[in-house]
Design goal:
mainly alpha, single chain
């Protein structure tokens, strides 16, 4: 998905200035999400890898890697069958990792309802390590931006949008996008401003937040507060 950033930003600004927020979201929302979700997938992937790496001595490791290979080769049915077996019969970390990977395969197949339900179930499972639960909640939240309401996204990720949580940057961005999509520019501004004000925000997320803040101000729907 290659596009020119400057051209993209100019076009978004033009749409916003012409007071066509719904049209702007239809045209650009999926691209904003696609760029941002790469960070979420990368972060959750690292969490899963660290969890797997700590438990790689399990004899089911080769089976898990084989299932991942099937998924990478777009052999979805075979991959899901292999992952289902690992979930039931695997040892150590592998049942949880199999659940995470199966949900990802479902999302890749466009079965977002099943994927969201699977990620949400992992996020609520107290037997799963907290870092993996949070990763699952984030994946559910990002899927809900396009497939749910702001309230559903909030229920999934807002508890992670606090200063002490490692996922706060992605959680705030998801909430900002969900509010933007819902047409609640004031709420979107609050979340993007929280990213901009956090000195620890990763540069790419902070840059996207500033672009969205500028766009929201240009729309006239939620002008910046005067200091």
């Amino acid at each position: 998905m290659a596009f020119n950033d400057d051209s993209f930003i100019r076009e978004v600004n033009e749409e916003l200035r012409s007071d066509q927020m719904k049209g702007a979201w239809r045209r650009f929302g999926r691209y904003v999400i696609a760029v941002a979700v790469l960070i979420v997938v990368g972060t959750t992937g690292k969490v899963a890898f660290d969890y797997w790496d700590d438990n790689r001595s399990s004899g089911t490791g080769d089976q898990f890697l084989a299932a991942m290979k099937l998924a990478d080769e777009n052999k979805s049915d075979e991959a899901l069958a292999a992952l289902a077996t690992l979930e039931k019969e695997g040892h150590g970390a592998y049942p949880v990792l199999a659940r995470m990977r199966a949900a990802s395969v479902q999302a890749q197949n466009g079965d977002n309802t099943a994927a969201i339900a699977a990620f949400e179930a992992i996020g609520k499972d107290q037997s799963v390590p907290e870092a993996v639960r949070d990763a699952a909640k984030m994946r559910a939240g990002w899927l809900l931006i396009e497939n749910g309401t702001y309230e559903q996204v909030s229920a999934a990720v807002e508890e992670m949008a606090i200063p002490a949580n490692a996922f706060r940057h992605s959680a705030r961005e998801a909430l900002g996008l969900a509010a933007y999509k819902a047409g609640n520019m004031a709420q979107a501004r609050q979340w993007y401003q929280a990213i901009a004000d956090d000195a620890a925000s990763p540069r790419n997320i902070a840059n996207r937040a500033q672009i969205m803040l500028d766009n929201i101000t240009a729309s006239g729907k939620a002008p910046a507060a005067q200091g």
